[in-house]
Prior knowledge:
Shape: globular
Helix content: under 10%
Amino acid sequence: xxxxxxxxxxxxxxxxxxxxxxxxxxxxxxxxxxxxxxxxxxxxxxxxxxxxxxxxxxxxxxxxxxxxxxxxxxxxxxxxxxxxxxxxxxxxxxxxxxxxxxxxxxxxxxxxxxxxxxxxxxxxxx
Length: 126
């Protein structure tokens, strides 16, 4: 089992930056795909970014955040980050960290992930 704990959310103004952290415990995440998803009120949980930890850190992003957000990892201390720059009001959501092992399920669908954190709120005011 892997336990994930997010931190770093908060209230910021449009154009500001935030860095979210996801600390993993229970197992090393070196052989996991780690993703960030977000869910705004009344909307479905949507993909934000993922990183493949064993492939040299290959990454992928949703079009809505490409060029503004960066996902990265630090295998010691077993943490994944989401650097969010040029934040917009439409980025307001609860952000969730997720993890999955090597399987053939989608990396951009929430149903493809096995482990989830509790979420951290990001609010961007205009």
